[in-house]
TrEMBL record:
Example of a GO cellular component annotation carried by this entry: cytoplasm
UniProt name for this protein: Oxidase FUB9
UniProt keywords, alphabetically: Flavoprotein, FMN, Oxidoreductase
Organism (species): Salinomyces thailandicus
GO molecular function: FMN binding; oxidoreductase activity
Stated family: Belongs to the FMN-dependent alpha-hydroxy acid dehydrogenase family.
């Protein structure tokens, strides 16, 4: 419930938040944020997977005190989720990643910052203060660039790097291609700013952001997808395509390298694991944690929904390292179900972008409050007072014919 019992009557659910955001974002931004790869079936299935489970509530258990908090990097996270790293948040609102960081700090919710943020990692660290913040990392073909980012993240107090491993190539996002998606020139991919030349600075970005929301981008072909066997990297401002993730990445060489670079200040997690086999390799190679993710359905379309991939990862890991999950989380009950299936923590991506588009920092705060309140209520109604007690005893799975199976 909102503070002082004041509800935002215009926006009582994440679905309503999505609708508001839809009308507030320009088409290129909306398409870029909302779409999935190819037909978008994995994106949809990430959401639908939650409906396959139902909760078995227990009653008469004194649920007058509910503790929704979990520990994250030695600190108390107020609820069972954090805000996942998503690129280029200034497209949604001029407050961008600063708005998200301040909202997360206020709500005591962890934040992941994308390598492709439109705000520098130092500024986000400063806004986050002691609130846990992690840096999502792409290991670029230009290793020196990654090394510099890691050094900066250590210095700025990041707790961990989340190496994204589901992106050896960029997934095929057809609206992005059709719109010839491009970051408007007054925004910076801020962690690359020194390579881009003098920055116009935050203020300039802030001033022109509202204007930009209305404006259609000046399109220049943004290749970088497969064109036959070739990947074509366009010239011009820094993009994922010019600083491509490295398709040669592998466990033996690159995870070892990353651990050395990050040690001892920062943990190394892998984001984008979706099988038990890779989870075992992650443990074997000494990573500190796993995020079960398919990049919000933006990479390999046809991949398993993350909630469906979660149980095999949890089983493979056998509690040796934490397992987090993201993808399709839009309700407090989704968080409950993911935790019941063995996740230690959840991350939400698009809802934070919609919150930003809705009202900047206040919109992200609102999004966090909606999901936290729903999660708290779900715990109480299911008869659970502590997150660690949420287990698969509280779930059943329903198949297409309506058959109810205990887990
Ligand atoms: C617009 C957008 C940009 C994203 N940018 C990144 C990124 O830079 N790095 C990354 O690892 N994941 C990125 N992701 C994936 C998210 O971290 C997360 O895995 C995903 O959004 C979770 O799914 P959800 O949006 O359904 O919650 C992005 C997702 C979206 C929607
Ligand atoms: C710059 C992009 C590669 C960021 C991303 O991961 C995404 O759009 O899904």
């Amino acid at each position: 419930m909102a503070k002082g019992n004041q509800h935002d009557l215009d926006c009582l659910t994440i679905d309503e938040l999505e609708q508001h955001a839809y009308h507030l974002m320009d088409k290129q931004t909306r398409d870029y944020y909302n779409e999935g790869a190819d037909s978008g079936s994995t994106l949809r299935e990430n959401l639908d997977a939650y409906a396959k489970y139902r909760i078995r509530p227990r009653v008469l258990r004194d649920v007058s005190n509910i503790d929704t908090s979990v520990e994250m990097f030695g600190r108390k996270n107020s609820t069972g989720f954090g805000v996942a790293p998503t690129a280029m948040q200034c497209l949604a609102h001029h407050e961008g990643e600063m708005g998200t960081a301040r909202a997360c700090k206020k709500a005591k919710v962890a934040m992941g910052l994308s390598s492709f943020a439109t705000t520098s990692l130092e500024d986000v660290a400063e806004a986050s203060e002691d609130n846990p913040h992690v840096l999502q990392l792409y290991l670029f073909e230009d290793r020196e660039h990654s090394r510099k980012l890691i050094q900066r993240a250590k210095k700025a107090g990041y707790k961990a790097v989340f190496l994204t491993v589901d992106t050896p190539y960029l997934g095929r996002r057809n609206l992005e291609i059709r719109n010839q998606f491009k970051l408007p020139p007054h925004f910076k991919v801020a962690n690359f700013a020194e390579e881009e030349g003098p920055s116009g600075g935050d203020q300039q970005a802030a001033n022109s952001a509202n204007e930009a929301r209305q404006r259609q981008p000046k399109a220049a072909p943004e290749a970088g997808y497969f064109d036959g066997e070739k990947r074509v990297a366009p010239k011009g401002p820094i993009t994922f395509h010019t600083h491509a993730a490295n398709p040669t990445l592998n466990w033996e060489r690159d995870i070892e390298w990353l651990k050395q670079e990050c040690s001892p200040e920062m943990e190394v997690w892998v984001k984008g694991v979706a099988t038990g086999e890779d989870a075992i390799l992650a443990v074997h190679h000494g990573v500190n944690g796993i995020v079960v993710s398919n990049h919000g359905g933006r990479q390999l379309n046809g991949a398993l929904a993350t909630l469906d991939a979660l149980p095999e990862v949890v089983e493979a890991v056998q509690g040796k390292i934490p397992v987090h999950v993201d993808g399709g989380i839009r309700h407090g009950t989704d968080i409950f179900k993911a935790l019941a299936l063995g996740a230690d923590f959840c991350w939400v991506g698009r809802p934070a972008l919609w919150g930003l588009a809705y009202k900047g920092q206040a919109g992200v705060e609102h999004m966090i409050r909606l999901l936290s309140d729903e999660f708290r209520l779900c715990m109480g109604l299911a008869g659970v007072t502590k997150v660690k007690d949420i287990s698969k005893e509280y779930l059943v799975k329903i198949d297409k014919s309506g058959f109810v199976a205990k887990l």
